[in-house]
Amino acid sequence: MTQLSMTVNGQPVSHDVEDNMLLVTYLRETLALTGTHIGCDTSQCGACVIHINGASAKSCTVLAVQAEGKDITTIEGIASGDKLHPMQQAFHEQHGLQCGYCTPGMVMSAIELVETNPTLSEQDIREGLEGNICRCTGYHNIVKAVQTGAQDMRKA
Amino acid sequence: MYATQYHKALSLNDARSQLAACDDAKLLAGGMTLIPTLKQRLAQTDLLIDLADTGLGLIEDKGSHLKIGAMCRHHDVETSELVAKMIPVLSSLAGGIGDRQVRNCGTLGGSIANNDPSACYPAALMALGATIHTSERDIAAEDFFVGMFETDLDEQEIVTAVSFPKPDKAAYVKFPNPASRYAMVGVCVAVMDGDVRVAITGAGQDGVFRHGDMEAALADQFSAAAIETIAIDEEMLLSDIHAGADYRAHLVREMTRRAINAC
Fold this sequence. Notes:
Chain A is of the alpha+beta class.
């Protein structure tokens, strides 16, 4: 066991955790933040994408103990009260989801994409979301949603 | 994942002493291969020694060569202005590894120490004639990559940095596996002081290799036409569910052609 402290969605948290616990397990089972999903066992699907110190990462491929002292943002941490984050709102308006399972990871990846390059081309978006798989294959509207979200994030 | 202990090393010396004190320890760099392997119980270890805080993340201009710390993430290399200015082939190679989230975590040192036969970096190290610096010594890339998932590293040895000589020109082109994004075949062509070097990853049964006949033909005449009739020995190539040896041989020639044209 290791004593672990980090900041999650702006709140300091601290627990004793097993050294082999994955970060996604810590978020979901210890902190009950189940918006971050587990979709595959091979680090390919991106349903578990979160931000670690602002950079997107697959939380199923990081140990909880590696996040000691880090600033973590999950899908639960991006809205302001009842007001959705512009990227969440864009996914809603552009119907950027079907079953919704991949959506939290898609939104978290998309936000980092826009933050690092506010003038994304469609190609940039498609390549930038390479690490996120939608098995409903709803990519067309996901790309539209990211384009809309990017515009709205610039305005916000 | 089987139970394990975790230690965040605070210096290279700390990592070395932890490694020496445990019979079955593994070094954790970016974890992009190690953690999936552990969590699927394909591997097991008593101790994970995290190198994240050991200060191995520098990128330095050394005049004739570029020295990149072992813990530099692919994203660091992809976006470094210094790398883009000195050896742009490394920026594009790093920017094509895995996906964005993998590039935010995966490291140069982790990639080469694992020596996956389909990894991109080994091709660049071989083509550019890089030197691998470890906690114990310097190793030429030619001697470092021994075979599939096998390197010349001793059990107690830690990769600290890689020095890449600056080429006259170089390009890396890969044919990614559509699902995993690993190179089915990746070819790095470099011209160094007039010498031409061709290194191929993803194709060889023993991992990365140089192709002497193509290098000789290109030294004579540096054009895609020069390699049209050069034999590519299928006997030494991988054959698996993703591609047979004959298809990989075809890809070797095609990726080499594209790399020459991109130089």
